[in-house]
Predict the structure.
Amino acid sequence: FQAEDGIRDLVRSRGLGDVYKRQMKKIFDSPTSYTTSEAQRILKTLSILEPLTEQELKILIKHSQEKVLPIDSVIAHQGDTPDGFFIIIRGLARVEKDGVLKRILEPGCVINAYDYFANTPRWVSAIADSPITVLKIPMSSIIKHFSSSRAIMNVLWQFAGVDISERLLANEEPWKNWRTKKLRSWIAAGTILDIQPNKTLEFKDETVIVLTGNAVLNDSDVTLSTPSFFNGGTLKAKTNVTIFVLPPPATQKSSSIE
């Protein structure tokens, strides 16, 4: 017996339909691995990475680790000590905290970036919701080689800002009523700022995420916790403070340092 797929075995083949099923299962279970040039092409579409030169982007990719994983693979475990973070190149991942689904991440999204910079355990687990390709950014190696590169380090902090902003704002008014695409596009326009001790930064309509350091808002005696956010106001740094500033929707940022 010779079926339509050319297999001379009645048990192994039932026709062309089975050929498609086997091929699709192989594709689904075994995601495509990306070459460095392909990963670079995909990462170049991310607005966060626009400040990097092509050479800086190549260097970042060279010192990163590509992982190709089948569906239901655990990418990151909640509670683990982070040694870096992940950028999704292809496929989808579901984010779970204590077994409860929080959100679905797509290509370009980051996993646990803030946790590394805050020196805290991973707050969620990330699990492949489809065959997935991720780029692991091993921070100890990156810092060892590129701590003096302001452009690369600023971009990595941008990822931390994006990560924690979605985490904090996704369930808050008015953002919980936004479409995910709109929320992520707005967050991607955020800017990392470092404030030195005793410096004051005024905001009008911006949303500000306090990432690290000690600061007070509007001359309060209460130090802001980290991470936290506020909309408009006067921020005074008590120590070195890093913030992530999100622009008013459809407007330009306006702030001044005293």
